[in-house]
Specification:
The complex is a heterodimer of chains A (333) and B (488). Chain A has 333 residues and is mainly alpha-helical. Chain A is built from 13 helices and no strands. Chain A has helices at 21-50, 55-60, 66-76, 82-95, 108-145, 151-166, 169-183, 199-225, 228-235, 240-248, 253-277, 283-293, 296-324. Chain B has 15 helices and 23 strands. The chains are: A mainly alpha (333), B alpha+beta (488). At the A-B interface, helix 2, helix 3, helix 5, helix 7 and helix 12 of A face helix 6 and helix 12 of B.
Chain lengths: 333, 488
Amino acid sequence: MTATTAPAAPRGLTSRGPVNPWVRFLARRLFRFAASLLGLMVMAFVLIQLIPGDPARNSLGITASAQSVAQRRVELGLDKSLLDQFGHFVGGVFTGDLGTSFNLGLPVSEIIGQRWAETARLAVLAFLLAVVVAVPLGAAIAAATSGGRRRFLDMAFTSVTGLAYSIPGFLLAVGLSYVFAVRMKLLPIAGTDTVSGYVLPVIALAVGPAAALARIVRLETLRVLGEDFVRTARSKRLPTLRVFLRHVIPNTLTPTLSMGGLMLGGLLAGTILVETIFVLPGLGSTLTQSVTTKDYPMVQALVLVTGGAVLLINLVVDMLIAVADPRSTILEG
Amino acid sequence: MAVPSEPGSLDPQKTLDGTALTMASFAYDPLVNETPDGSFVSGLASSWTQSGDDWVFTMRKGVTCADGSAFTAADVEANFAFLENPKSGSPLLGTYLPPGITAKADSAGTTVTLKLSRPAPFFLNGLSLVPMVCKGGLADRSKLKQGADGTGPYKLTKAVTGDEYTYTRRTEYAWGPNGARVDAADQPSKVSFKVVADQATQANLLMAGSINAASVSSSDVQRLSAAKLFSASYLSPIGEMFFNQGAGHVTADEKVRLALTTALNLPEIQSVYTGGTGSGPTTFTPGTPAACPGNSVESALPTHSVSEAQSILSSAGWKPGPDGVRVKDGKRLSITFLYNTDIPSGSPAAAELATAAWKKIGVDVQPVGKPVSQTNSVLFGSGAWEVNWNGLGVSTPNQLVSILSGDAPPNGSNFAHIDNATYTAEVKKASESSGAAGCSNWLAAETALVRDSDVVPFANMPWPTFGKNATFKFSGSYIVPTSIRLTK
């Protein structure tokens, strides 16, 4: 939806000036996005420097001669001042040159280009699975337990989702791998040579977020079910399904979208351990290896790319919320 | 075959990474090969002679690179021009090769003479670890970062960084160790290295038969052993105790080092540290083949005794303070104990034992566990440590000289600031001899370090590589590519 087709301005916004509130909203969001990206760049550079260790000595090991280590430092550009290194990093970002991996000796952008799709595929599949399971489940449980009915079902749902949310993803990954791949031999232990290779990693990644999302949807649905307009709709004897689809679900969208955006961002981070356990050559396993070897350019670029992706997702979610519910206060923030 | 980490750059002359060098042995050959019994057999050179500082290598005929071009004596000369140039930044220089070698091929291209500028003990041992690169790779080294250009038994045919590297057999290959080939029916036509960081996943893949070999050192060793899988291993000096002797550190005092060593029940520590799979060291280079067989360690280690350790500290002027921690001239006997948290898996538990033993004799201990990748930064960077457990995995004693003597960081590699006159004198004598002829001096040099508690070797551990439907042999710490046999 564009500014020209926007609905009537939300209350209180028109008094701020002649500029269309949607334009103001977009400008604010884009400014915040750019500022966050800049902050991310600074953090990406500073944080990796804080991890103790010399990448040159690290790459050559304890038995390498001091001369070899000194020469490697020159080759990696580590003999330059931190300010020079930062300037080179920032300059590179604006020219599309993310540097050369210390470890692999290849352009970082080339490595990310080869590996981002695996991570994105994993995160998006897990996100879809979580949404497909959580939204109907949360709504159905709310419908079945509203008004204090079926307390046992309510308790069972709360307990199971609480447990599912509390299990660390990597532990779930190891457990699923052991049961379904090692013992039962139903699915591959590792790799994604076949579609079935995605089943366990996607489940391992989706269970926690699905549990959290289902709880949010249940709570929101319960809240909306208690609203006057739902009672009115019911009193008109509209079919239950129609009440749900036309009146309940749309009014739970805002918190669900907010949660979904955060969830997708979290899933990107969650891929780190899941990729390692299921041997998936994505950005997560690359980040693990790069932090270990202190591959500065690789870590900086990965933080920037994954962090930028999360910021972008949040931006898109904010816009979707604004479009879905123009009365929400998001337009003011 | 599973490897635990990405190999990084595949240029075999620009890395000391174990994974990269394992893979390099499939695509590249050295001039000579060392056998498990310590003798040297042909590689790219069919024979060699030594006269003073000159070594003349006769090149094997018919050797070709993966691209089909011939590998000649002139290529060896070009390899050494690169390796010996400090600006090339090859870490093999100073580790496996002494600086100052000049190489000259004869006009017929059949021999190459390597002229040493100084005595080089274990010269052939070092040469056996230096892969030779072919013309194409020498002309454009960027090709080698994620490619290969060598004469080895396999050629790199697929490299997916961070995932899998596939090597394909060269059936024409006939110049392996002692003329070994790879064209037998039970030798693999392809060898793929799959990056699998998680040890449990490596073990799972091996048990399922999805891979044929994996080097596993975690608790998964027990279930793989119980499954009666084939395994071959090499002995690694995984446990060596170092003391920071830099100015201002309490461990610069020899009596403190001796007391700390005496307080430990080293056999018990060794057993916990290695999960019961290890043994007590006898030399600093226990690998197979052992460069200098013998026992430089046992007789020089002090006998374990808590009361003796307390007595040593008291006689050195370290008296118990009000809180039980010993004090001398107003300085508390406090140590930072740096140990690896990941390798070996028993390290944290053994570190607890040592910490308790040292506290018992009045030492204030701050145990600091770090992954291996972060330990070096403390040793070579901040220097904020007094005691460190480490393992210097080298194949010959001369490779340790720059670490156990000479300049401290940042100008040198002597991270423990060791200054042992007897060690230096014995090394000087040993360096004038070639290979095993200097072993008595090398062993005496090691004994001097142990006796003065400069280095306390306390654990060796076999590092197993398990095989399923495949067998193989090790030379040093690397699988011999021509030794792999498929059993199913």
